[in-house]
DNA sequence: ATCATTGTTCGATAGTTATTGAACTATGGA
DNA sequence: TCCATAGTTCAATAACTATCGAACAATGAT
């Protein structure tokens, strides 16, 4: 993952609503959730949610698929994984003080 | 780390200049770097850098100490560690598909 | 005391992001 | 075909963010 993509992904997650949405989609698992279910769950207007989902999608953190009348959104686990890898390896230079899991693994 | 702090930290890192600055300070190690050395390295104006350092500091990702005429900035490894922990555990719900290091550890 | 160095703050400006409701598109059902 | 449902897009607005250079503080040297 390039730094520019990392910056986009970080920006996409750097918002209360969007980190909630992403977490919800992760918890929903591979089946994903229809946009309407997300907006019900988080109690927000369809158009605002649509805006935020577009941001997440543009950053590559979620994908969308039309199923019937619904747009089903899914978390893109791979993108999150690459983001965490970048933060750990490139940004933190592999420093174990930064990376809780590296510390855990070395115990 | 609270979600609101996580959002702040993500926002602080979600900028080309600031992720560079943070990486530079991580690589500089515990001694840190004077602001002037950072602006030399990244070739930017003092006032713009000062703005970005303030953002990082406000988000808790770096600390500053006056030493002589310099302000020495240091990466806050603990904050980064907490950020990665939040993303892995809370946001990703501990899903191994999200967390490269969890996968690595389980092999 | 005076001056140079090192950074920060301020005001102006430009650009970006978030929110709202109304209009619109696409799909499926009667 | 006509209607209801599910979402997206659009325009307007407000709020926030980034950049610049000039002015300002704080420190250290002469």
Write the layout of secondary structure elements.
Two copies of one chain form a homodimer.
Chain A (H helix, E strand, L loop, with lengths): L2 H11 L2 H13 L4 E2 H8 L3 H13 L3 E6 L2 E6 L1 H15 L8 H7 L1
Antiparallel strand pairs in A: 1-3, 2-3
The first copy, chain A, binds a DNA duplex (30 and 30 nucleotides) through helix 3 and helix 4.
Structure description:
- 2 copies of one chain form a homodimer.
- By secondary structure, chain A is of the alpha+beta class.
- Chain A has a single domain, classed as Orthogonal Bundle (Arc Repressor Mutant, subunit A), CATH 1.10.10.10.
- Helix content of chain A is 63%, strand content 13%.
- Chain A has a 3-stranded antiparallel beta sheet with strand order 1-3-2.
- In chain A, strand 2 and strand 3 (70-75) form a beta hairpin.
- The longest helix of chain A is centred in the C-terminal third of the chain and has 15 residues, at 77-91.
- The first copy, chain A, is elongated.
- Chain A binds chain B through residues 3-4, 6-8, 10-11, 13-16, 19, 22-23, 26-27, 75, 77-78, 80-81, 83-85, 87-88, 90-93, 95, 97-105, and chain B through 3-4, 6-8, 10-11, 13-16, 19, 22-23, 26-27, 75, 77-78, 80-85, 87-88, 90-93, 95, 97-105.
């Amino acid at each position: 993952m390039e730094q520019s993509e990392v910056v986009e992904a970080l920006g996409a997650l750097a918002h209360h609503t969007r980190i909630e949405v992403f977490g919800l989609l992760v918890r929903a698992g591979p089946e994903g959730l229809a946009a309407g279910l997300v907006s019900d769950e988080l109690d927000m207007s369809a158009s605002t949610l649509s805006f935020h989902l577009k941001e997440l999608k543009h950053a590559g953190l979620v994908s969308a698929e039309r199923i019937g009348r619904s747009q089903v959104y899914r978390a893109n686990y791979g993108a999150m994984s690459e983001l965490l890898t970048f933060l750990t390896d490139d940004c933190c230079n592999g420093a174990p003080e930064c990376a809780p899991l590296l510390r855990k693994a070395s115990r």
